[in-house]
């Protein structure tokens, strides 16, 4: 009786019969067999290796996932599905290339299945071996033979795969070979160290106190001297490196930041270690004694001034934070009312070119107090922008998020919604150095306008909004209609 692998080879041979590879015109079946062989260097799991043999059946033959599941089981069918791109039969493969790759990469980035990751690595290693061989013979003429003839786009695709696989598979020979081929075709794409064995320091957060949670991960107290930021699963090593590089860059410019001294692995996620001795987030400090909220609001306003006093230009390499406001409009208001969206865009476009530094995610959960000094973390959104973007972020975190459900603030910040509102009120009084209610209301109207745009965009991220979410969206749309007529400029 045949085993699963033997049956898969026969099945794939029949379905791929008559087909040849793009280069050299060799029988296509040799590719899935090569993929299976690469997989066998990483695992002895028969289902993963079988999936390697079958990985192109759905995409390139008349075979179906239903038939694969019937013959080889759900696990094999699931693995094959992770490698099967949408075909878009009514459009050319050239026209849909980037869309297909982006959709496929999203599946890879969001998968925690080691079988999926191994299958991707084996398939792409087999492909890049072929590319590397042809490149050595044809040079840049090779790109004209592909559906995507832009070598920069091809580099983006293969680099993105490596970044998604590195933490899980960087110790394998297959990964090392993959990096070598990338650096041959696109010299300098990766540090040469990545092509050698490297073991990340592995740490555990079991029993560690959670200090805060944000969009990209959580921050834990690791021990008395160290804090660790654990990034979400879809963040690559490159994402962590970029955030640390931004931290160092802004520190040199004068932003008081905590500098990470090392990247570690925390299970299947990356972590960044910070030396923050006997320090707590400002959120923790306020939560411990909410009567001290005015003190910390003053500290935060002074910190904001320190940031916003740093002048930068486009040449300094920071992105334009104003783009985030346009994204809010495109992803929310524009889907409901195009005329209103146009009015919103006019207000945003009227902002002068940004010339100051902004943190981009400025709140009490991202600021640590150490020996009386406030130090920032979470630097991935540092950019150039008008300070109103930062003020609007505070209004969003401390007022808007708790309007419908005050417990959201309590979970996110660690203190009551009433304390959060007090924090915002005291912050802007200190930041602008005034008690003038007219001035403060004008600023708050601008912050509320941006915050409503942000909330509408957040609600529209859902594939289908609930009845409650739809009503909330209508409420914030009504506020935007009111504020867009009231606010004459967003500049402060």
The total number of structural domains is 3
> Helical content, roughly?
55-70%
- Count up the helices: 20
Which regions have little confidence, pLDDT < 50, spanning 5+ residues? Answer: none
Characterise the protein shown here.
The protein is an alpha+beta fold. It has 20 helices and ten strands. It has three domains: 4-195, Hypothetical protein af1432 (Orthogonal Bundle); 209-275, Phosphorylase Kinase, domain 1; 280-486, Aminoglycoside 3'-phosphotransferase, Chain: A, domain 2. It is 55% helix and 9% strand. The strands form three sheets. The chain has a five-stranded antiparallel beta sheet with strand order 1-2-3-5-4, with helices on one face. The chain has a three-stranded antiparallel beta sheet with strand order 6-8-9. Helix 3 packs across helix 6 (74-82), helix 7 (93-110) runs parallel beside helix 9 (151-169) and helix 8 (114-138) packs parallel to helix 10 (173-185). The chain is elongated, with a radius of gyration of 26 Å. The N and C termini lie far apart (78 Å).
What order do the helices and strands come in, and which of them pair?
Elements: H1 4-15, H2 30-40, H3 46-54, H4 57-60, H5 65-72, H6 74-82, H7 93-110, H8 114-138, H9 151-169, H10 173-185, E1 209-213, E2 217-221, E3 226-231, H11 237-253, E4 260-266, E5 269-275, E6 280-281, H12 282-288, H13 293-308, H14 322-336, H15 338-349, E7 357-358, E8 367-370, E9 373-376, E10 383-384, H16 388-398, H17 407-413, H18 417-432, H19 437-460, H20 467-486
Antiparallel strand pairs: 1-2, 2-3, 3-5, 4-5, 6-8, 7-10, 8-9
Helix pairs in contact: 1-3, 2-3, 2-8, 3-6, 3-8, 5-6, 7-9, 8-9, 8-10, 9-10, 13-18, 14-15, 14-19, 16-18, 16-19, 19-20
């Amino acid at each position: 009786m045949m085993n699963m692998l033997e049956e898969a080879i026969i099945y794939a041979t029949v379905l791929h019969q008559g087909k040849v590879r793009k280069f050299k015109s060799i029988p296509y079946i040799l590719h899935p067999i090569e993929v299976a062989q690469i997989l066998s260097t990483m695992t002895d799991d028969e289902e993963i290796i079988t999936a390697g043999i079958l990985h192109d059946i759905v995409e390139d033959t008349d075979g179906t996932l239903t038939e694969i599941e019937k013959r080889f089981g759900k696990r094999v069918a699931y693995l094959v599905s992770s490698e099967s791109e949408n075909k878009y039969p009514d459009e050319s493969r050239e026209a849909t290339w980037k869309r297909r790759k982006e959709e496929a990469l999203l599946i890879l980035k969001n998968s925690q299945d080691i079988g999926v990751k191994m299958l991707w690595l084996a398939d792409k290693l087999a492909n890049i071996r072929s590319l590397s061989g042809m490149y050595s013979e044809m040079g840049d003429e090779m790109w004209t033979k592909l559906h995507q003839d832009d070598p920069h786009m091809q580099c983006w695709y293969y680099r993105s795969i490596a970044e998604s696989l590195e933490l899980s598979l960087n110790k394998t020979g297959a990964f090392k070979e993959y990096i070598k081929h990338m650096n041959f075709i696109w010299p300098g794409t990766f540090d040469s160290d990545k092509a050698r064995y490297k073991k990340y320091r592995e740490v555990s957060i079991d029993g560690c106190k959670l200090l805060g949670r944000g969009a990209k991960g959580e921050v834990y107290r690791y021990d008395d001297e160290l804090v660790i930021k654990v990034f979400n699963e879809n963040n690559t090593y490159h994402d962590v490196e970029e955030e640390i590089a931004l931290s160092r860059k802004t520190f040199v410019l004068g932003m008081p930041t905590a500098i990470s001294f090392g990247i570690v692995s925390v299970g299947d996620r990356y972590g960044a270690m910070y030396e923050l001795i006997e320090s707590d987030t400002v959120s923790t400090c306020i939560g411990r004694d909410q009567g001290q909220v005015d003190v910390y609001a003053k500290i935060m306003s002074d910190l904001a001034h320190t940031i916003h006093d740093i002048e930068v230009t486009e040449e300094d390499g920071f992105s334009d934070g104003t783009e985030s406001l346009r994204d809010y409009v495109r992803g929310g208001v524009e889907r409901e009312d195009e005329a209103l969206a146009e009015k919103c865009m006019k207000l945003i476009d009227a902002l002068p070119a940004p010339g100051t530094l902004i943190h981009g995610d400025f709140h009490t959960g991202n600021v640590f107090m150490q020996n009386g000094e406030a130090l920032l973390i979470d630097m991935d959104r540092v950019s150039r922008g008008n300070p109103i973007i930062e003020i609007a972020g505070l209004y969003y975190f401390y007022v808007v998020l708790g309007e419908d459900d005050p417990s959201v603030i309590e979970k996110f910040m660690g203190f009551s919604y009433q304390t959060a509102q007090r924090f915002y009120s005291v912050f802007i009084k200190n930041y602008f150095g005034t008690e003038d209610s007219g001035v403060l209301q004008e600023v708050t109207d601008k912050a509320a306008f941006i915050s409503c745009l942000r909330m509408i965009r957040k609600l529209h991220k859902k594939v289908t909004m609930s009845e409650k979410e739809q009503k909330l969206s209508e409420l914030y749309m009504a506020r935007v209609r009111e504020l867009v007529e009231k606010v004459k400029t967003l500049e402060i």
